[in-house]
Amino acid sequence: MNGISLYRIGALALRYLYLLRSSRIRIIELAYWPTVQMILWGFITQYLMTHSGVLHQAAGLLLSGVLLWDVLFRSQLGLSVVFFEEMHARNLAQLLISPLQPIELIIALMSISLVRTLIGVGIAVLLAIPFYSFNLFTLGPPLIGFFLNLLLMGWAIGLLVSALVLRYGMGAESIAWAAIFALAPLCGIYYPVATLPGWLQPLAWTLPASYVFEGMRAVLLDHAFRLDYLLYALLLNVGYLGLGIGVFLATIHQARQRGSLLQSGE
Amino acid sequence: MTVSTVILVQDLSKHYGPVRAVDGISFTVARGATCALLGGNGAGKTTTIAMLLGLLLPTSGRIDLLGEEVPRYRQRVLPRMNFSSPYVDLPQRLTVAENLTVYARLYGVRRVAERLAVLGRDLDIAAFFRRPYGSLSTGQKTRVALAKALLNEPEILLLDEPTASLDPDTADRMRGILTNYQRRSGATLLLASHNMSEVERLCDQVIMLRAGQIVATGAPRELIHRYGRKDMEEVFLDIARGIQSGEVLE
Questions:
Q1: Strands (E), A128-182
Q2: pTM (2 decimals)?
Q3: Of A27, A165, B83, B193, whose CB count within 10 A is highest?
Q4: Which CATH number is correct for B5-240, 1.20.140.150, 3.40.630.30, 3.40.50.300, 3.40.50.720?
Q5: Is A3 on the interface with B (CB under 8 A)?
């Protein structure tokens, strides 16, 4: 493999920024769902605070959960949806006959996913301050670790979903939306992993997000920073991201063998 | 591979299960030549071009482009070649200038604005630089696609049906642009086409394919003479129908 070129990665990231800039609706849409979720869960929190001891103790529990969940969700969608754009636009073949290397395509997709996640979740996080007097940044420095881990997990799932769509065509596109929701009940977003049935708990602990949400509760309820949770999550993410990259690259290689790159499209 | 040979193909095959899309073809193209890959639908033209581009991996055989083995060293060759086809597209929502800027950077073009200005003038596309690519007519899109293919001033330019679905005027202008580019740069052109008058006008070498195999090669005039026909259109029909040179069509 030749050296990775930041110039080429920047060129492709520029293409995605042009695309984002070309439609204001897209920018609004990026922030729309996280904001609606935040508003909904904000009201639920206000209601439950008068009835729940746990929420009275840590008012931001649900809102932190929903906003961090959106980091995971948006980072996955931000990667896979942008990749689908290339397939819809019948542009993938053009990219793959240019000097752009597949690994550079992956890095560019990750870069734009980061931008889209920051826009989408960032606006909801800022709106939560005036709406509910809730500031996610009160989680402190651990928030950086939570954000990073959720981002990495989102990218890993995004790459696996993109590989699936590359292999089976745009008919599999709905998996991009469904995949992450299949994991949501296991991640312990709104409740501890211990709430799950015993047989499901080992499965939950194979997900980096479970450690993030447990770590979030440790900060909010016990005012404790669980570095061990972050490190477990990071370790798992290294594995999952490696798997995601490997499967994506292998799928491109397979598409070159099958001749499906010329036919990719709607 | 001699110094002047820029495309070398040896025993190249692509099989999809029992289907032999390309079946053991060998040919060379010299620097500065314009070579046409001809054949009916399913003859193996696009498959061959896709393998040259590295978009499709051969089942067997060897490809050397500009002295580098492909796909093994495709990364060394790709910045020096380019491709245009109406069957692949550019992002519709991006403007023409945005699309060309992105691809100029992907191909490592350094003075992007200058290069775009030159292509805008040469291909007469500057007037719609700010328009979304998706809003252009077919002819305009084809010119933009050709501009994309010329961004890096390629030494090898691969073209799949370069004038398909263009009106005669636009098609003629496209051929003029390609001829001028080749004269000026000395580039090698390999094109797949169904337009025989285009082939006669542009090409000095023809490779005829049928069912994935090469059935005839030579200069257009040579083939016309060999088959005893008046133009390439008739030669094409003979070959597509499996008539050997010298046979008389009943």
A1: none
A2: 0.89
A3: B83
A4: 3.40.50.300
A5: no
